[in-house]
Write a structure and sequence with these properties.
By secondary structure, the protein is mainly beta. The protein contains 4 helices and 26 strands.
Length: 377
């Protein structure tokens, strides 16, 4: 990157910029770039529809996209909240920190090389006209090296995550169940599961915390090229994987941090409805010098609470490179992607029709015993 800045190369640069009005439930092409080339910078600015609009990138005329993520979540902003932060891959600037659907400028500096063609689109799945300003920069390449990967990104959500004991306070004896072997493989929240050759470079993780307690204590578990026990990566807790300790901090560093810090989503007593309070967190971690390589497949997971006992809303965006353009999963429909709001009384506004539940948890006898013990307290 910066060490190559002084090296003169025979390449051409291109920049596409415009402001578009995108009709409801329609898609517009932002850029159509011929290769071999790589996208070097994406800047976007808008005032709303952070979850309703999907950023879509398709390489080399494949019949499927390799990037398909709500625009806010792609740039590290969960829950349709905006905030100013900077990292190695993304930066966001706004005059409306911790507000929902307010103007913000979004930047992505991830290199996205491709051999023949890249089409960048924005799909407006809202019921309103969406106004999008953008600039996309790219540079030509003499050729694509055989060991060059294609950038991929996908969004997942569990609303709610089907924990076995959401009423149990973390870091208490009743929460301390074992989560081993196939139980962990089946139960953990999935950040990424994909096949082929590539390397995983990180994610962001958003949590809507329905409790008044800590939402973490979940270990990351990452399996490379198939199931085994223990997994290839087995961490020590949610905040540890995300580069913090003793809970998440308001810090936003180059490789890890909080783009939305739960402790700063403060309620405003004068209004009847808020979209903040100590209930929303978005954290990120990037494996740039230490990507996790896989030859056949990878499964990136994290527990939600001790042995997946919590039952909050969870969503995530995974980032990786693949040896060839790979299909990503479809995100939930727009109505099932929207953030969960709550009243000024602190009551969450839960709409079953807007939920997108995670798969049922396999419950062990130990979990049932601990749940019964907690009920007697």
């Amino acid at each position: 990157m910066i060490t190559d800045l002084a090296r003169l190369r025979r390449r051409s640069s291109a920049r596409t910029a415009a402001t578009l009005n995108i009709l409801p439930h329609s898609t517009r092409v932002l850029a159509d770039i011929s290769g071999p080339a790589q996208i070097t910078h994406i800047w976007m600015a808008q005032a709303e529809h952070y979850r309703e609009c999907l950023l879509k990138i398709t390489y080399d005329d494949r019949p499927y996209p390799s990037v398909l993520v709500p625009i806010g979540d792609f740039f590290g902003l969960g829950h349709s909240l905006v905030n100013t932060y900077e990292s190695a891959l993304f930066s966001v600037s706004t005059n409306y920190p911790y507000a929902f659907n307010k103007p913000a400028a979004l930047n992505c500096y991830i290199p996205m090389p491709f051999a023949h063609r890249a089409v960048i689109e924005l799909a407006n799945e809202s019921d309103q006209v969406h106004t999008q300003a953008f600039a996309i920069e790219s540079e030509s390449l003499p050729q694509l090296s055989p060991d060059t990967g294609y950038f991929q990104a996908e969004f997942r959500r569990a609303h709610p995550f089907a924990g076995w004991g959401g009423e149990i306070v973390p870091n208490t004896p009743e929460a301390n169940a074992a989560n081993l072997e196939r139980l962990a493989w089946e139960n953990n929240y999935i950040i990424l599961e994909t096949s082929g050759r590539g390397h995983y470079i990180g994610c962001n993780l958003s949590v809507t915390n329905y409790t008044n307690n800590w939402w973490g204590e979940g270990d990351e578990m990452i399996w490379v090229d198939g199931y085994k026990w223990p997994p290839d990566v087995h961490g020590t807790g949610s905040e540890d994987y995300l580069g913090h300790a003793g809970g998440m901090h308001p810090s936003a560093f180059q490789h890890n941090g909080s783009s939305i810090f739960e402790g700063r989503t403060i309620p405003v007593p004068e209004i009847e409805l808020w979209r903040g309070n100590s209930g929303y967190q978005t954290s990120y971690v990037f494996h740039l010098e230490n990507p996790i390589h896989f030859s056949q497949q990878i499964k990136v997971t994290i527990e939600h609470g001790h042995a997946n006992h919590l039952a909050n809303e969870m969503s995530s965006t995974a980032y990786w490179y693949a040896a060839a353009p790979t299909a990503v999963i479809n995100p939930p429909p727009a109505a099932q992607r929207m953030p969960v709001l709550r009243l000024n009384t602190g009551e969450w506004i839960k709409n079953p029709a807007a939920e997108y539940p995670g798969k049922p948890i396999l419950v062990s006898d130990e979990m049932l015993m601990l749940k019964a013990r907690a009920a007697k307290k």
